[in-house]
Every structure is written in C-alpha cells, then in structure tokens.
Design a protein that fits this description.
The structure is a single chain. The chain is about 30% helix and about 25% strand. It is of the alpha+beta class. It has a single domain, classed as Protein Transport Mog1p, Chain A, CATH 3.40.1000. It has an eight-stranded antiparallel β-sheet with strand order 1-2-3-4-8-7-6-5, with helices on both faces.
Length: about 180
C-alpha cells in the first residue's frame, strides 16, 4: 500500500501546474467522514488497518500535528480481492480553524497539487470532479499503483492504491468522495 501526504501538509508543489478549479460557494462548508463502504470496497478494521492508519498519522504529525490529529483516515479492501487495497485521507474546513484558513486561502488546485507532490507519482492529469465540483487529479505511481487527490475549497481528500491504474482510481475516488463528503 502506498502511504501519502495530504494537501494541507505544508508540502508545496513545484512539479505540478496550477489550474483554476471551482469551489463551494461562499459559506458552503462540507465535512468529511470515513464511510464503512462504498462502491466495491469495505473499510478494514483490526490490527492491520490500525497499523496502517497509525503509520500515516505519525508521518503526517512530522509535517503538521494539527492536521495529523484531525485527519480522517480509512483503509479499504475490494470485496473478493484482498490484494486490492487503498488508503484514504481527508480534511475539511470544519475540522480546525487552521485547516479552514488554508483551504479558503489557497485555490483547490493548489491543495490538490500539494497532496500529489507528497507522493511518488508521474504526470498527474485532471479528471472530471463529479457533482461536488472542485479539482480531481490522479497519476500513476512511479513504483506502480496510483494516487488521486481532490479539493474544493472546503475539503481535500487523497486516495492511494498499490494496484489500481490512475484511470480506475479516479473512478473509485469519485465513488469514495460521494460517500465521504457531506
């Protein structure tokens, strides 16, 4: 499984270009939850999932302890295929005033690029962000798998898989986002 940083981690992109993206209207604030399931994936529980979540949280704490403490993290497994796992990290403006300030100050594309810059990816490209708007970018991993990130001015989310292609993970990310963002 690929472990990743989140857009609001303080990592600033140099490799990815900025593009404009829509965001929620002024005052509209969405929240992030960690759904029990979505699409063909079920949230993993138990010692293995707890270890992955703690590893992600510890890595994030080295960059920003507030974000690490507030980050929603889930590890998922595709039904019927134990090899197909993914990790999800999400933050919302309502989680903490510092997070709200960053998400309101920076364009969604900047937050998405920051998240992707923290992962070993090759050539991110834009995908349709779905009905919640904002920006969705995904890229293949430099060592296999793929990573995706979305941002919309109120939330930022990251999804990583060691198996999926960027195109497949973009589809899965939209399904996860629909289940996670309210």
């Amino acid at each position: 499984m690929v472990l990743v940083g989140c857009g609001s981690s303080g990592v600033r992109p140099a490799a990815y270009g900025r593009t404009a993206g829509s965001s929620h209207p002024a005052g509209a604030q969405h929240m992030i939850t960690v759904p029990g399931s979505f699409d063909d994936y079920t949230r993993m529980t138990g010692a293995d999932a707890d270890r992955v979540i703690q590893t992600i949280r510890n890595a994030q704490a080295q960059q920003n302890s507030v974000y690490a403490a507030k980050m929603k993290i889930g590890v998922y497994q595709r039904r019927g295929d134990a090899r197909q796992r993914l990790a999800f990290l999400g933050l919302a403006a309502g989680d903490h005033p510092t997070i709200a300030q960053e998400l309101r100050t920076n364009p969604p594309s900047f937050e998405v690029d920051s998240a992707l810059a923290a992962m070993p990816l090759i050539g991110p490209k834009d995908y349709p962000p779905g009905p919640l708007g904002g920006v969705l970018r995904c890229a293949p991993g430099s060592h296999g798998g793929a990573g995706c990130a979305w941002g919309d001015g109120s939330t930022v989310g990251v999804v990583a898989s060691s198996i999926a292609s960027a195109d497949e993970l973009a589809r899965v990310t939209l399904a996860l986002r629909k289940a996670a963002e309210r």
